[in-house]
Amino acid sequence: MQVGVPKEIKSQEYRVGLTPGAVREYVHAGNTVLVETGAGDGINTDDDAYRKAGAEIVKDAAEVFSRAQMIVKVKEPQKEEWERLSPGKILFTYLHLAPDPRQTRGLIESGCTAIAYETVTDARGGLPLLAPMSEVAGRLAIEAAGQSLKRFNGGRGLLMGGVPGVQAARVVVLGGGVVGTHAARMAVGLGAEVTVLDRSLPRLRELDELFEGRVRTRFSALQSIEEEVFSADVVIGAVLVPGASAPKLVTRGMLKHMKRGAVVVDVAIDQGGCFETSRPTTHADPVYAIDGVIHYCVANMPGSVPLTSSHALNNATLPFGLALASKGLRAVLDDPHLRNGLNVLRGQITHPAVAASLGLPFKDPVAAVEEELRKG
Ligand SMILES: NC(=O)c1ccc[n+]([C@@H]2O[C@H](COP(=O)([O-])OP(=O)(O)OC[C@H]3O[C@@H](n4cnc5c(N)ncnc54)[C@H](O)[C@@H]3O)[C@@H](O)[C@H]2O)c1
User: Fold this and answer.
1) Which pLDDT tens digit goes with each residue over 183-201?
2) Cα–Cα dist 305/73, whole Å
3) Calpha distance 18→16 (Å, rounded)
4) What separation in Å is there between the alpha carbon of 237 and the centre of ligand 1?
5) Mean pLDDT over residues 114-122, rounded?
6) Ligand 1 pocket member 200 (CB < 6 A)
7) Which residue among 219, 226, 239, 250 has the greatest number of ligand 1 atoms within 8 angstroms of its CB, and so is best to mutate?
């Protein structure tokens, strides 16, 4: 198959869909890989490194999109990208469609097949292609919070771990999945006082074991959220209901009861955010304050450490990408986990949570793929 890698064009996004190491695997498996010139700039990798890995360097995104049958990216397509897609093309990337009706309409109208990294599953019920970026974002969330806590940034002027004899920061993590666990790990490492809330009791039990009592766990409910958020110095938003918009756990009214200069880092912003007052921000202008509470809501946090993130992402996407490249849409029929990643096919929404969130009709993915394969 002809596989294409365009340079990412979203603001402040420096990751790349395929690293040279991954390109080598695709080429070794018999595929042709077209890489847009400069696609690896953000990870300090030049065109020559891609050439050595077996890629053909092409002059622009238009050529990648027109010649490749499968496009491998990182961030959701921007308008000029979805306008380049057409029926028969496979797009393999993060999409986050639930809070993004405009992009969804663009993909529907393009007629392409869009497979979202964030809804591909694994046998343990996890999200293997979201996990590596969630690991990165969870760890970065505490760095971002520490920065915002500083007085000259509008924060409470508090050192995350305190010092002997002085209270450390109280860090509250909403959602104890991958982001939440890695945020908790970093916060504990710095010496903060950490509480994790989750709706899943089995998950809370696992966290209790994992952190051997160094993290408090609480069941996530209206009362416990209020109690914890009101006394927090830092709140990390890390909830996820796969494919759906994030539940709004912290309302506008609740901010008034929070400490002035407290920091919220809404990592779940890519699914709409779990604070009512969250709106997406960028690395160039990452924070804003409402009622004296600093909000950090960067939607592509791992993009700030593209070297780590691109390699971590490629490690996870490689087996799925190789299966798609060698079998095309049949790979989606053969693997129920990859099938869960299928969000859009020829103008139809094939993921139930995405369809429900956007109020659009849902098409069974197996039926949609079989129809597509019959059409040839
Ligand atoms: N901003 C970024 O750059 C960035 C990067 C990576 C991931 N993310 C996002 O972070 C979010 C979390 O991702 P993850 O990989 O940790 O997901 P995950 O599935 O591993 O964890 C989510 C957790 O939220 C819990 N949860 C669901 N509803 C809850 C509720 N009402 N109260 C408390 N907990 C609840 C679940 O039980 C689960 O443990 C996702 O929206 C993901 O897209 C953002």
Assistant:
1) 999 999 999 999 999 999 9
2) 16
3) 6
4) 8
5) 96
6) yes
7) 239
